[in-house]
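Write out the 3D structure for:
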Amino acid sequence: MELLRLEHITKNFGKGDGKVAALRDISLKIDEGELVAIIGKSGSGKSTLLNVIGSLMRSDGALDEENGRNVMKVLKELNESGKTVIIVTHDNKIAGQCNRIIEIRDGEIVDENKK
C-alpha cells in the first residue's frame, strides 16, 4: 500500500544569480513497510529531500562501525515489524542492506532499484 507520493518536487535556495536547485522535479512513491536508502554525495539533495518528506533527524556526527551495525540492526527489526524506514547515507554498505535504493545526484533521482 502506498505510504507517500511526491510528484514534481523542486526546491531552490537563494535568489537571482545565487539561486541553487537543491531538488529538481523529484517524483517518487514509497510503499508502506519498505526499507529505503536515499544515497548520494554531499550536496546532492538527500537531506533536502528527507526534509521535504518530513522525517529529517539531525546527527552530530557519523557513527563508528560497531554503533552503525547496532543502529542498522534496530532499523531492520523495526522494518521487519512492518514499519517504514527511510535512511539517508553516503555509505554504499549501509544502503546495500536496504530493500530499495534511491540514488540522488545534483538534486535529481538518477537511479532507483529494488531487491
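The chain has a mean pLDDT of 87.
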